[in-house]
Design brief:
Blueprint lengths: L10 H5 L3 H9 L6 E3 L2 E3 L2 H10 L20
Antiparallel strand pairs: 1-2
C-alpha cells in the first residue's frame, strides 16, 4: 500500500481521524488543501508530506496566525 493509504481514499480514512480533526489540520495549515468549485480537495502529495513530517508540525515556510499556532508544550 502506498504511503498514506490508497489514492482517492478519503483523507479522514487515510489518516484515521474524524471530520473535525481533518478540518482542524487544514485550518492550522498542517495539512495543505485547495478549493475546487466550493469543495475542499487534499492532494495525495499533501497527505504523504503530512505523514513524513510527522503530525503537528506545519510545512516549512508556513506562516500561522498566533491564535492557531501549536502550543510549545
Amino acid at each position: 500500500m502506498p504511503l498514506g493509504g490508497k489514492p482517492r481514499e478519503p483523507v479522514r480514512t487515510r489518516l484515521e481521524v474524524g471530520r473535525t480533526k481533518a478540518y482542524d489540520l487544514i485550518r492550522t495549515h498542517r495539512l495543505l488543501s485547495l478549493r475546487v468549485d466550493g469543495c475542499r480537495r487534499i492532494p495525495d502529495d499533501a497527505v504523504r508530506d503530512f505523514i513524513r513530517r510527522g503530525i503537528g508540525r506545519p510545512p516549512d515556510g508556513a506562516v500561522l496566525c498566533p491564535s492557531v499556532a501549536p502550543s510549545a508544550d
